[in-house]
Amino acid sequence: xxxxxxxxxxxxxxxxxxxxxxxxxxxxxxxxxxxxxxxxxxxxxxxxxxxxxxxxxxxxxxxxxxxxxxxxxxxxxxxxxxxxxxxxxxxxxxxxxxxxxxxxxxxxxxxxxxxxxxxxxxxxxxxxxxxxxxxxxxxxxxxxxxxxxxxxxxxxxxxxxxxxxxxxxxxxxxxxxxxxxxxxxxxxxxxxxxxxxxxxxxxxxxxxxxxxxxxxxxxxxxxxxxxxxxxxxxxxxxxxxxxxxxxxxxxxxxxxxxxxxxxxxxxxxxxxx
Length: 273
Description:
27% of the residues lie in helices and 33% in strands. By secondary structure, the protein is an alpha/beta fold. The strands form 4 sheets. It has a 7-stranded mixed β-sheet, with helices on both faces. The radius of gyration is 19 Å and the shape is globular. One of its GO terms (molecular function) is methyltransferase activity. Keywords: Methyltransferase, S-adenosyl-L-methionine, Transferase.
């Protein structure tokens, strides 16, 4: 069984399957009509409005993506702990590490529940995973344990992303690759404010000080921001100049049994080759 499918979409909602459970979640950009019958939607195991209405499923369950086992949860903010459309990026990260060789030092900022960190560590990299939420880091560490990767070199850091990077610069620490999923808005563990348009340039300026002399790749994922993927390409060019290759695009999900495509976010990435 695939770990995720977009079964249908329409009228402000998605109908999705995560593992063996079907969820209905709101999505205001979906202004088109549904394809499936009303009964299919009504049979969902959980429906999110202001909270979850649950039937015949637990609040926490396990799914598998390739070699990883991941715990999903019905969170108060409609999310489940993974963004399945990032699977393309996870595979790309794994390929870059395999191409570059073992022993890369990778920094994963806004690391959330740790899927990219686990992919990188399983591929042979040493990972520093930074997130501002203690509970989310705990969730990521559980995913590490579930996936049988407790022996892999991952440092779990509770910190504000900008503060951590500036501290690493003062220490003289360097990284061969950067992964980040900066939110549109957020707070650090000590109340630090993150605003995408204002804070990302500050973070990138700090990152320039900790990128190694032989960098391999950088990945930026972004959601719920009113800008195009070309913006990420432009800031990556500011950071890395004319060397390497820059790619940009949208996070896309194809609906099952349909040619409809749902865009959920944007991405930009730089690679040495």
